Amino acid sequence: MARRINIKRMLGGTISFVILAALLALFFAYRAHSTQIHPPRFTVSVRQLPYYAFCSFYRMLAAYALALLFSIVYGLTAARGRMYERIMIPAIDVAQSVPVIGFFPAAVYFFVSLAHGRLGVELAAIFLIFTSQAWNMALGVFEAAKTIPGDSIEALETFGVSGWLKFKRLLLPACVPKLVYNSILSWVAGWYFLIACEIITVGPAHYRLPGLGSYLMEAADRGRTGELIAGLLTLLVIIIAMDLFIWQPLSAWSEKFRYEFAASAPPMQTMIGASALAWFSGALFGTARILALPFRLAGWMFRGISGAMPAVSLETRESAARIFRWMVIAGAVLMACGLAYSILRGIVALIEALVQPWPAEAWLIPKATLFSTLRMITAYLISLAWIIPCALYASDNPRLHQRLASIAEIVGSVPATALFPLIVLFVIRVTGGMNLASILLILTGMQWYLLFNLLAGVTQIPEDLKEAVRSFGLSRVAGWRRLVLPALMPSLITGSITAWGGGWNALILSEYFLYRGHTYQVLGLGALLDAATYQTGNTVMMLLSLLSMVLVVILLNRLIWRRLYDVVTERFRLDY
Amino acid sequence: MALLELSHISKSYPHAKGSLSVIDDVSFAISEGEFIAIVGPSGCGKSTLLRIINGIVPQSSGQVLYNGRQIDGINLECALVFQSFALMPWLTVEDNVEMPLEARGVPPEVRRKRISFYIDKVGLDGFEEAYPRELSGGMKQRVGLARALAAEPRVLLMDEPFSALDALTAITLREELLDIWRLPDSPVHTILMVTHIIEEAIELADRIMVMGAHPGRLIADLKVDLPRPRDRRAEGFNVYADKVFSLIEERS
User: Fold this and answer.
1) Which of B53, B83, B59 is nearest to B155 (CA)?
2) Of A99 and B242, which is predicted with more confidence?
3) Is A324 part of a structural domain of the chain?
4) What CA dihedral angle connects A413, A414, A415 and A419, to 10 degrees?
5) Does A174 have pLDDT greater than 50?
6) Roughly how many angstroms between the first and final C-alpha of chain B, as a whole number?
7) How much is the pLDDT for A391?
8) How many domains does chain A have?
9) How confident is the model at residue B6 (pLDDT cuts 50, 70, 90)?
10) Which range marks the domain in which residue A455 is found?
11) Which residues of chain B neighbour A574 with C-beta distances below 8 Å?
12) Inter-chain contact A472–B151, Cβ cutoff 8 Å?
């Protein structure tokens, strides 16, 4: 049984790798069509600051609105049945752990070729922020919808509640607490990547969108410390104001949607026993159903409208419904064909790109992969070393817990990329090592996910277990060992997966550094990718280094994280 | 001298409008060998009172005296059995029972022996390696009982121990609890049980403390003079049941 699952896992890994690689190659293929953009002049001045803050905020808001819509539709659909779940959840998993920043150049080519000039760049930026916000929210919605107690659903069904009413009365309210919590995380992630999203590089041309991110980067790059601090303060004011006036009231409000029940519904077991063939056909069928979904949504709306018009005769309505059903099927087939076509085109583009002569640096890739992975491991160990003790102390100190959470929200939101010049120069001056600097920079993009997940895990430790530990007089340390650590294991694993995802993103920004015309770099995948993007413009190198990174990410996920996750969720589940 | 003495225990929580009083001036004493039941409507603070005696919840005022001495923090001579069992889902039956022994610094060789003795005593031998989620509700509560007994406390505190079980399982476990209380080789002969099932209290206890709600206070301290084993259909039984019912009704 275990073997079969492994084969399935490797198959899934290979499929996702090929699809990603193909889409990536297709994106890059657009490069030929993209026209030159002329970067406007960018001024760094405190007087412009409110305008920049306004631009950044609305960019974030637009991306967040998209992410919210996406996550509700995606999460609820994935929770509709096994068929959907089998495709959609692994897809999110890959999207979450793949270094999205690495795909930026490709995405930019794509959007700029869709809409020229600033509009294209704005769209690209919004899309990039969206990719840093959407996945965890969608997963949160999915989890919330999956854990709705069966009797609540049955209760609604016995009253004949379905469709829109079921969505409004049951599904959406059930998702509110997770959605609010994950929205906070998403905004943190969004602010962190603001700079990477507002400064967009297409080959040799840099485009700076007016915004806080560009402002901070320019101020740091020109060594204007005063303006840099003013920019950071502005950002801090926005973050704290949002926390006070939006997130805290929303969190308090979302509490009333929380289910209070002793034992959660038994989690569904994974598909043990299904043969690989059945899995594959199921996957195909599931994809078709997912593709048909927008049409079915339209169908609901249509039915709603026609239901509201009593004048239309029954026959007319029925024949309209029949036509509509055919349209749905045709539409889904069309979309499936489109998807298959683009994957095929992508594979062709991938092969075309890879048969070109490889540059000499290509042979550095294995070594670079190893070094980058080692840097990631080091940063991960450092995060664990400080975050686990923090979580343990927070477990029996609610005030510390709250303080840590708000500090993490604020500090984690600071786009550390703006501070990179300061950090890099300082570390290099003190120790002379760019390696240490780059590990520190990875840390800024990695650690918060771990902290947030562990802090959330701490709040889920049942009160009666805490009482039992105290009642039997266990010392603090014994209580950590017997209760808190085991109870935190699932959060530790999910936190680690997202932390590694954030880490890979930060890695791309942190191995290669351009400051006042001077390049600081270490050998690594991120550095190779950046050098190819900013200096040589060599598509093959971009593609090769990105593909190696994606390969490492998928291998680590399949071989380590998925396995650990299965073991841990089985052994350290909190239902008893 | 009383083994355990509560004097003028009050508990209140900070509240939007000043403070919310949960327990108001409760005093009583427990002697060695007594089986005492606390009954009362929900919200009368009976579970909180149990936790104050154990020391996991601090009282707002008043004193808990054990053997005439005031106890600060957790009283390790007490052991608590939970309504929800409160077993660690990732520990085996054995490891769950080991927890209080670990806390009391019992040497490993003694631990092994004690663990198997008490697992045996609650009738779970053969299940040492099982995880709580593999056990039925009744078996889980047996683990909870074994865990409390293994601490070899002088006072066994029980918070609605049979409320989460089905009626038939509860009947068996009540009988076994009485055996443990009575038999001379048991570690503990003093039991304080919180329950909202009045018949359960009359069947088991020597004395029934009747509490009223809002705020929780002691209404009556009732001695149960019925021969053991007690029969729920006996006439005397119903007299007591009516009395407790009317006491609770009157005050609420």
Assistant:
1) B53
2) B242
3) no
4) -160
5) yes
6) 34
7) 94
8) 1
9) very high
10) 48-259+357-571
11) 89
12) yes
